[in-house]
Each structure stands twice: as C-alpha cells, then as structure tokens.
Design brief:
Shape: elongated
Largest sheet: 6 strands, mixed
Structural class: alpha+beta
Distance between the termini: 32 Å
Helix content: 40-55%
Number of helices: 11
Oligomer: single chain
CATH superfamily of the largest domain: Beta Polymerase, domain 2
Order of helices and strands: HHEHHEEHHEHEHEHHEHEE
Strand order of the largest sheet: 7-4-5-6-8-9
Number of domains: 2
CATH architecture of the largest domain: 2-Layer Sandwich
CATH topology of the largest domain: Beta Polymerase, domain 2
C-alpha cells in the first residue's frame, strides 16, 4: 500500500488499508478474510479496526447466514467528508500517485474524473484518469497496471501532451470541457498547474505515442483518441 504522509498522520496503517478498501468501494460488501487479504494486516489487528469502525458507525456490519460482511456506512453523518479524505489520502489518489511517481516530471498533471470523483460510482464503475505530460500513453498504461489490481477497478487513462491539451481547450474541445467542468480529485498537481497548462504557451510534446490517447489499462486491444 502506498503511504501518504497526511494519511499516516490521520490514520494507522491498518485503518488506512481498511478505509481505503471499503470507502473506495462504498457500494460493495467485503467479508473478513477478503479484507485481511487485501489490507495485508494481521487477522487480529484488522478485526479490531473493523470492530471499532463499526461501533463508531463508520462501517456497517451485515450478517448473511453465517458469513459477516462489512461495508462503508452511507448513513454515517460524516460519510461524504470521510470518503473525500480517504479518497485523497489513503485510497485512490494515493495509489495512483505512487504508481505514476516513477514517471517523474514526465507527468505534469493527473486527476481522477467521472463517477469516482463525483462519488456516485458503482461496483462495476471504471476509474477515469486524465494525464497531461510528456510521458507516452504506453508509459502511463504500464505504470498503472499494478494500481488497477490494487484498486480493484479498471482504469481508463486519457493522456495528452501539454501542447495538445492547451490547443484543444482553446478550441472548446467538448470532452475536455466536460471533464474540467466536473468533479476532480487531483493526483499530481492541482488547480494552479491546471491553470498554467490551460493558459500558458507550451512547447510541442516529444511523446512518441499518438496524441490524446484514451484507452482502458485492462483492454489493451482498443484505442480511441478524443
């Protein structure tokens, strides 16, 4: 699990893992051994976390026959706020940030958009990610392959060289206008970097991949530009 300094200050390692899984998939129920296997902690430690979080109303404990399941509690008074914090620190953003880190300065901006960013994702929802930089599409796809397994969601990256990103925005590109108008969870960079990329003259990218690529990490046989 990727450790974010802010997450480490807020939550213990095991709590990060539990909340990252359950609040990263708020519509799914998970049984104990599944949580332990995914979180990577000891059985006793994870059981304590689940017991405390359930007692506080942060998680729901549901019994189906002899099997007990746990789920993010949508009725929790701070569900939306907690989900937002977990998403940015111990969940999706932290995992993606760690996955893209080896690409270094070749990624200037990256943010999650779509249903996951808006908080209305479902069990089968893909994770949409916009990346701007000189990293090739193939580099981004390769970097995200492990993150996709860890997050248990198919990742759909849209990758743009900086010059194309700016030119398409200037031309009123429908897809990018829609994305920028919607909810965003920043992974690399923020609003300042986004404004800089959108407004400042930029040199043409040296990326060898076709510009504006968008394709699922899990479906390597298809590709479409937007």
């Amino acid at each position: 699990m990727i450790t974010d300094p802010l997450a480490a200050a807020l939550f213990s390692k095991n709590r990060q893992a539990v909340l990252g899984l359950l609040y990263g998939h708020p519509d799914e129920e998970f049984y104990l051994r599944e949580i332990v296997r995914t979180a990577g902690g000891g059985m006793g430690a994870i059981q304590r976390e689940l017991r405390e979080l359930s007692a506080a109303g942060i998680l729901r404990r549901v019994a189906h026959g002899r099997q007990v399941y746990f789920q993010a509690n949508h009725a929790c008074p701070v569900f939306e706020e907690l989900r937002a914090v977990v998403l940015k620190t111990a969940g999706v953003a932290a995992v993606l940030r760690g996955a893209l880190a080896p690409l270094g300065d070749a990624v200037r901006l990256a943010f999650v958009f779509g249903s996951v960013a808006a908080g209305n994702e479902r069990q089968a929802s893909d994770l949409d990610l916009l990346v701007v930089g000189t990293a090739s599409f193939a580099d981004v796809v390769g970097a995200l392959s492990t993150a996709q397994v860890q997050l248990r969601r198919e990742i759909n990256p849209a990758v743009y060289p900086p010059a194309e990103f700016r030119s398409k925005l200037a031309a009123g590109h429908h897809f990018l206008k829609t994305v920028l108008a919607g909810a965003k969870v920043f992974v690399i960079g923020g609003e300042h970097e986004l404004a800089d990329l959108a407004e400042q003259p930029l040199a043409h990218s040296t990326s060898g991949d076709p510009a504006g690529n968008r394709r699922s990490v899990g479906r390597r046989g298809t590709r479409s530009g937007r």
